[in-house]
Amino acid sequence: MVEVTVISSTMVRPENINQTGRQKIHLTPHDLDLLYLFYPQRGLLFHKPDPENSIIPRLMASLSTALEIYFPFAGRLVKVNNHEDDTVSFYIDCDGLGAKFVHAKAESITVNDVLQSHGSVPYFISKFFPANNVQSRDALVSEPLLALQVTEMKDGVFISFGYNHMVADGTCFWKFFHTWSKICLNGSDPSIQSIVLKDWFCDGIDYPVHVPVLEMETLPRWEPSTKERVFHLSKKNILDLKAKANNEIDTNDLKISSLQAVVAYLWLSIIRHSGLNREEETQCNVAADMRPRLNPLLKKECFGNVTNLATATTTVGELLDHGLGWTALQISKSVRSETNESYEVFAKNWVRNVKRPKTSFGSRLANNSLIISSSPRFEVYEHDFGWGKPIAARAGPADGAGGMLVMFRGVEEGSIDVHATLNSSLWSDVLVNLLTNDMVGQ
């Protein structure tokens, strides 16, 4: 049995918490809809630094400086009871209470143990992450908005994180992570810019948003059995899929992107071996960055949760009767449909007819769906804390609703790694065998 021992768990606070204008961040309907979402968790694997390099004090000190810049991560989620209308409201209190920093050791585990053949994900990897089974709502009671873990291995170091998605999205987090690594490598740099807080709030919506208490009742937690595998697609694999998809749709006014072709291939492969009936519905949900889609546009540096799920829906039969190009086209159309208007319509409808926020629990349709998380556009291999860049990226345990495919940029240029977590009650071993034969496991 592999042993991962927690050496310490500390709250790291920003250097300076007494700054004006940082007291409260109101949450939009898009934020509130994630109250029951599990913390996204990601991690990077590094070779072990020189033994004389005391990395833990250095990482904690640089984290404190980084949290002064990205101060919402050091705040807390607060609920307000509105007794006058029997509702509740939520906001982020930027009180500087800090982020959780866990130092752990796994001295018997090697880099090769993590990078198993054929893309297998070792059973112990969940112990390398700091926020397993933590939902956004847990920040109301005991959980910080950000947790990090540094696990020292026999010949490597694994740095992981989990964060509250109501506060920020992946775009923001990887920028924070880059800032942290840059400060750790070079020290505090005055050229590092302050964040720009999200100021989008739909016209006609008053905030704080009042949510009926009934809709905030506690839901049971669901811990399904899942299968995990990491698949690697080479640059050639991706270019071949893109060319095939575009040849099949045969249109000059719309081109399928590399990512859309890859996602379409995965969706088709999974559904083909899922055992679902032809009449059943299936969905593919792709996270879309809304910053360049809103009017007026939000700056790309804008901090906050500014993503939305673009959803392509069809029946199993219709999906299987068409090819890669048609499937990729449905994904492309769903992403293109995410506009300023659709974003506002969702927000207004959410406030007008407040329903319980998103949760996978008890949803049959969720079991037939894929969620495409993260993006190969995130520069996960550009982080250097002072002992070299990462050699692999991994995702932490997901909630297992249907299927979660976390997309990472591959180590070699133009490649993509996919960390897949699939509900084993639905997806059979045929899936794993198929994708292992079609793609090269890491």
UniProtKB/TrEMBL annotation:
Gene3D superfamilies: Chloramphenicol acetyltransferase-like domain
Keyword entries, A-Z: Transferase
One Pfam family, short name: Transferase
Name of protein: Anthranilate N-hydroxycinnamoyl/benzoyltransferase-like protein
GO molecular function, one term: transferase activity
Lineage of the species this protein comes from: Eukaryota, Viridiplantae, Streptophyta, Embryophyta, Tracheophyta
